[in-house]
């Protein structure tokens, strides 16, 4: 493959319609909201879960965003975690307010305020990158030290991913298809780099831990919001922002200069930053050739391939990897 794949982030999920939710769930939501639901938009087709997610209009004039999932789906636990976490975030963290929750049968629903916004990074512009950077700086400051108790370490979240490059080298896992032709040559260095993770990917900051452009919203006033707070962990204060850099670089933003000037990263050792990017690249090398899980479209696997590609490209520049065979 000679170029990174294109991904349509407006079509990454296949979610149920409002009519597919059990009547008991819809009634429980109306009771929890204290208002009848008069209209529900078609479900959003972004994100990487198969849970219901759509804007709703209420008789009292409010607009809200409803997410609901049945027990057994990843989204069921994710929505519960978000409902637990968001009310504990400091006011400086700009996340949609949780309005209410509801349970019925084996379903859980969480309702948040509706933010009329757009996803940045399609592609990144300098203005949107500055907005996202500012949000990451403010959020990191507000969440250090973590105001939430009992969080797992970020390293624990990615512990198994650290093993992926070595597994590929050992023949225990296949190298995914359609990546840069030079990837096999740099796998030994990638495997070495991720071994720093136990000492690097720890810290006292509560991190979003899954910050991507599709987990950001820029509203009509230009304000940047952070959504989907179900992977919160303890880690270095810079990981959320650094996780945005490789795809932004791929789309024309000079992140190599930005990382030397930003207060989140200016004093962080190069190997620490590169280790984190290497771990995310390793994670993206898992399973991109398999069919997507239920509720996701094939765009999920192309997203993995795009992120593996761009994170490896970013490392290749930073570490002078041999991308041309001589």
Automatic annotation (TrEMBL):
Protein's UniProt keywords contain DNA-binding: yes
Coiled-coil ranges (or none): none
Source organism (scientific name): Kribbella shirazensis
InterPro entries: Aminoglycoside_PTrfase, Kinase-like_dom_sf
Domain Aminoglycoside phosphotransferase: 59-245
Lineage: Bacteria, Bacillati, Actinomycetota, Actinomycetes, Propionibacteriales
MF terms in GO: DNA binding
Protein's recorded name: DNA-binding transcriptional regulator YdaS (Cro superfamily)
Entry keywords, A to Z: DNA-binding
Keyword rRNA processing carried by entry: no
Classification via Pfam families: APH
């Amino acid at each position: 493959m000679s170029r990174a794949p294109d991904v349509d982030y407006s079509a990454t999920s296949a979610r149920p319609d409002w009519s597919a939710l059990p009547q008991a769930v819809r009634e429980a939501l109306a009771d929890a909201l204290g208002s009848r639901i008069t209209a529900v938009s078609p479900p959003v087709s972004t994100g990487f879960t198969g849970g219901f997610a759509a804007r709703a209009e209420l008789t009292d004039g409010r607009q809200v965003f409803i997410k609901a999932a049945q027990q057994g789906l990843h989204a069921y636990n994710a929505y519960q975690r978000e409902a637990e976490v968001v009310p504990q975030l400091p006011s400086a963290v700009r996340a949609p307010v949780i309005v209410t929750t509801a349970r019925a049968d084996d379903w859980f629903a969480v309702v948040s305020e509706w933010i009329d916004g757009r996803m940045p990074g399609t592609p990144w512009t300098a203005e949107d990158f500055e907005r996202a950077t500012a949000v990451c700086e403010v959020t990191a400051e507000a969440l250090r030290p973590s105001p939430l108790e009992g969080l797992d370490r970020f390293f624990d979240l990615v512990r198994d991913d650290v093993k992926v490059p070595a597994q590929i080298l050992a023949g225990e896992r296949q190298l995914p298809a359609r990546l840069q032709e030079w990837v096999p040559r740099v796998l030994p260095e990638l495997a070495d780099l991720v071994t720093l993770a136990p000492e690097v990917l720890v810290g006292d900051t509560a991190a979003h831990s899954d910050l991507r452009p599709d987990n950001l919203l820029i509203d009509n006033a230009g304000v940047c919001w952070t959504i989907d707070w179900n992977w919160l962990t303890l880690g270095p204060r810079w990981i959320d922002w650094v996780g945005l850099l490789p795809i932004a670089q791929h789309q024309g933003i000079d992140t190599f200069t930005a990382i030397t000037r930003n207060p989140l990263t200016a004093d962080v050792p190069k190997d620490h930053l590169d280790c984190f990017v290497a771990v995310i690249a390793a994670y993206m090398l898992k399973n991109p050739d398999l069919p997507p899980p239920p509720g996701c479209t094939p765009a999920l696997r192309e997203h993995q391939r795009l992120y593996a590609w761009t994170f490896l490209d970013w490392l290749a520049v930073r570490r002078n990897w041999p991308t041309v065979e001589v």
